Amino acid sequence: MNLPPSAQLQLTETGELRHFLSIDGLPKTLLERILDTANSFVVVGNQEVKKVPLLRGKTVVNLFFENSTRTRSTFELAAQRLSADVLNLDINTSATSKGESLLDTLRNLRAMHSDMFVVRHSQSGAAHFIAQQVTPNVAIINAGDGRHAHPTQAMLDMLTIYRHKASFDQLKVAIVGDILHSRVARDQVHALTTLGCQDVRLIGPNTLLPTAAEDLGVTTYNDLDKGLEDVDVIIMLRLQTERMDSAFLPSASEYYQAYGLTRQRLSKAKPDAIVMHPGPINRGIEIESEVADGKQSLILNQVGYGIAIRMAVMSMAMSGQMQQRQVMEASQ
Amino acid sequence: MNMLIRQARVVDPYQQLDAIMDVHIADGNIQAIAAELNIADAQVIEAKGQILCPNFTDLLAYLRQPGNSQKGTIASETRAAASAGFGTLLPSPDTQPASDSTAVLELVQDRAKQAGYCQVLPIGALTQGLKSTHLSNMLGLNKAGAVAFSNAGYDITDNTVLLRCYEYAATYKLKIFVQARDAALSHGHMHDGILATQLGLNGIPVIAETLAISRHLQMMQHTGVSCHFQQLSSAAGVEMLRQAKAQGLAISADVDLAHLCYTEQQVQGYSSQYHVQPPLRHESDRQALIAGLADGTIDAIVSAHQPHEAAAKQAPFADTATGMAIYDIFMPLLLSLAAETDLSLLQLTAALSKQPRTLLGLEANGLTLGAVANLCLIDPNLSWQLTSTAQQSQGANQCLQNNSLTGRVTLTLQHGKATWQAHD
Amino acid sequence: MAQPPQLPDTPSLVADLVQQVSQLIKHHQIQDPLVIGIHTGGAWLAETLAKTLNAPLGKLDISFYRDDFTQQGLNPKVNPSSLPFDINNRHIILVDDVLMTGRTIRAALNELFDYGRPASIKLATLCAINGRQLPIQADACALELQVTANQYLQLEGPEPLQLTLIERTTDESAS
After folding, report:
1. Nearest CA of chain B to the CA of A100: how many Å?
2. A20, B11, B249, C3 — which has fewest CB within 10 A?
3. Is the pLDDT of residue B194 over 50?
4. How far is CA C88 from the centre of its chain?
């Protein structure tokens, strides 16, 4: 397989998913399988019996080095619906702040014999590092590492698009806001381009656009009105207040003036354009309330899709992991 | 000692010599060099296919002692240097405590002498504690053996302090080694480009180097001090120095071997072994560094050897320590650089021996009759494996651990004594 | 490809199965049975059965209950299970096309019990072949057959329903 090293780490020898770390380099067929699998879990989520026994007897540990109640609870719910045993470890306040290295934390966790870690960490590359340390015994799902990747979020965004638009080929998709600091945006771009989208637009001021962004296969815009012209999908990113303090932006009000999604701006897009946001939303900073609550907004649907996507990747990665373990045990 | 080295390819940049010769060494001195020699009673070393050249002088290596002996010791790292063909090295003043006192300088020189592998010429700290606020006792340090002064990787952000440091150094005609990096722009962990964007890592843009070069050049001209720019990393940086030299400024520059051989692509997959400062940059930068070496803009090649214990590199990328241990793979890398580029062995050995010594005002160590034997013998075709027993440096951060390598130093003589001999 | 053992034509097998199930219901005095078919072949059969018996129809997809998930992974295209009734204390006729190892039925039973506690379950399959790996047998079955290791049976449909005997050419594993 001629894949970048980070993609190789995520796949078994037969191309099955065994860690889910970042979308960069994963083949189109795999992303499509994740979407189809997640679609079946959406159906399960609408049934009376929402639990399936796929991960019964397996232990999933939520290893959150960075706080996030929302993301953690959707992973917890997804794991429980798969009948797994779930353990929540909030590391940020305990050992590592006392100086224990990440490596030692992982070594201590080994004794728990868990099958899967869902990891969120403030450093880019942390999920890869952890996956390298724990392979082949534990499957790693990246719940967000620094500025690098948030693959489950990107895939739930893709599922949202998949369920509401015909195909990716003809779509014009705009991603608006703090792309520089967004781990979601990077994975969204990889997913969109891999799934066949030809027109991906990153919109923001130069201070919030990453270096050499156009080399990712996208077009950059500083003008929101221009960038939204004729667009089918608008993904708004969250603006963190720290950006004002560290000289990336002058003020929230100036940001809203230039990049806030108002009804008027929305009208530049196609009439059936959909509006998405990974949440939590800052009303009046990234998006006008009427748009966030309006009929084109799929922000609330994204949450349900998030559970389905996480169920999909957790079951796929667990399966790939078990297969890989069996292969290794057989060869010993 | 009575040694006859037969039929080596003798490469001596001091004499512009590149020919197959026999070399006779006795009592620590070079007794004869000729196309063919017959010396009775001499220990014969059949060196057909091997390269014989003056041993190398390293303008920057990290010996770790005092203070960080879990990463390496003066004994282990000078031995590693000898195994890479080095006879003289200048250790970074970034020790703990910093090399800002005669006590530290004496300790380093004593330990090096005890170990007996390399001549160690200290670099003194430019500011006290390398804290960039107070001048160090440069005169005293110079008397205690410091041949140059540097603030290591710590940018002196206060222009007034920098000005005073340079004025003071100029007073006593002390040489300044500067690592040109703008502190505020250097908080990243790799070259600022598309790869940094993809990996989500903070990048260090090229202007972090060029802004600093411009600043130091002007300070230099204003104060009359003589600057040597260490570890260039960018094409733009090379071009600035090229123009400065064309204007007649008395500057010199070096580049580390890793930057001549590797680019940012090595960081793919978050490979922390390649987390270095200054960062490995784009291929176009690497080509410009090679061109700069070829046309003399860059005078010397350094190792920038920086050993670390394993844990220092076992963390998410941005949390890992910077620096690469390179002595054990130095010769294989140097030889592959020679094979890949138009750089001749004369040019490369000059950049490793004659030029660094000249810019420091050290005595020549060419292969001349009667001179003390300071040389190394290199087998460019020897296949060997970097196993844990073959490895000389204490550092766990060797890039090619356990790899098969081609090319090795088989013998190093320093001041007439063998400081390194390769075993099978 | 050669088709040794000629199979009886499928419509007559289906009719036979319907007859057997009707007799089963009469014999055991089963009140208000629910007919539940396992996707996809069993679901087609269940439609016919439910219509004839005038009973409520449900469908099960057992993909999430298979026991070979860790070896084979997940089948992404999953049909929705639909049980538009409460199965507690009800009598169920569980319908499938081919009974071989018994693992599909085991998965279906597990799934049913996640929905509630039925009063009884009777198993009706169009045919049963050798290869049982679990102690599971059909209560009504239209065709029992012995096949060799490289033969298997497949029901095509939905219209017309056609049961065929197939020679395995590659190393596929049957369910």
Report:
1. 12
2. C3
3. yes
4. 21
Interval B199-222: pLDDT, tens: 999 999 999 999 999 999 999 999
Q: Does the CB of B384 have a partner CB in chain A at under 8 Å?
A: no
Is C76 in the A-facing interface, judged by CB distances under 8 Å? yes
Alpha-carbon distance of A76 to A310, in angstroms, equals 10
Pick from C73, C80, C110: CB nearest A53: C110
Phi-psi region of A15 (alpha: psi -120 to 50; beta: other; left: phi over 0): left
Q: How long is chain A?
A: 332
Question: Do chains C and A meet with 3 or more Cβ pairs nearer than 8 Å?
Answer: yes
Closest Cα to residue B241, out of B220, B256, B225? Answer: B220
Q: Please report, to the nearest 10 degrees, the dihedral formed by the alpha carbons of residues B81, B82, B88, B90 taken in order.
A: 20
A31, A34, A52, A314, best to mutate vs chain C, most C CBs in 10 Å: A52
Q: Which of A54, A321, A324 to mutate to test the interface with C (most CBs of C within 10 A)?
A: A54
Specify the pLDDT at position A93. Answer: 53
How many residues are recorded in chain C? 175
Query: Is the pLDDT assigned to residue B177 strictly greater than 90?
Result: yes
Interface partners of chain B (CB pairs < 8 Å, 3 or more) are A
Cβ of B194 within 8 Å of Cβ of A129? The answer is no
Q: Is B51 on the interface with A (CB under 8 A)?
A: no
Q: How confident is the model at residue C166 (pLDDT cuts 50, 70, 90)?
A: confident
Q: Are strands B175-179 and B226-230 parallel, antiparallel or unpaired?
A: parallel
Mutate which of A36, A40, A315 to disrupt the C interface (most C C-beta within 10 Å)? A40
For tokens 């959909």, the residue is: A274
- B382 has a pLDDT exceeding 80: yes
What is the spatial distance between Cα A182 and Cα A278, in angstroms, rounded to a whole number?
A: 11
pLDDT in tens, A215-226: 999 999 999 999
Q: Where are the beta strands (DSSP E) in B96-239?
A: 119-120, 123-125, 148-150, 175-179, 190-191, 203-204, 226-230
pLDDT of residue A250: 87
Q: Distances from the Cα of A32 to the Cαs of A17, A35, A184, A324, B128, in angstroms?
A: 12, 5, 19, 22, 61
Q: What is the DSSP string of B120-155?
A: E-PEEESBGGG-SSSB--HHHHHHTT--EEE-TT--
B200·A146 Cβ contact <8 A = yes
Does the pLDDT at position A26 exceed 90?
A: yes
Taking the C-alpha atoms of residue B409 and residue B82, their distance in angstroms, rounded to an integer, is: 9
Q: What is the pLDDT of residues B220-242, one digit of tens each?
A: 999 999 999 999 999 999 999 99
Of A40, A51, A316, which is closest to C114 when you measure between CB atoms? A51
ipTM, two decimals: 0.89
Alpha-carbon distance of A174 to A275, in angstroms, equals 10
Peptide bond into B88 cis (omega under 30): no
> What is the per-residue DSSP string for B287-342?
HHHHHHHHTTSS-EEE--B----GGGGSS-GGGSPP--B-HHHHHHHHHHHHHHSS
8 Å CB contact of A5 and B269: yes
Contact with chain A for residue B194, Cβ under 8 A: yes
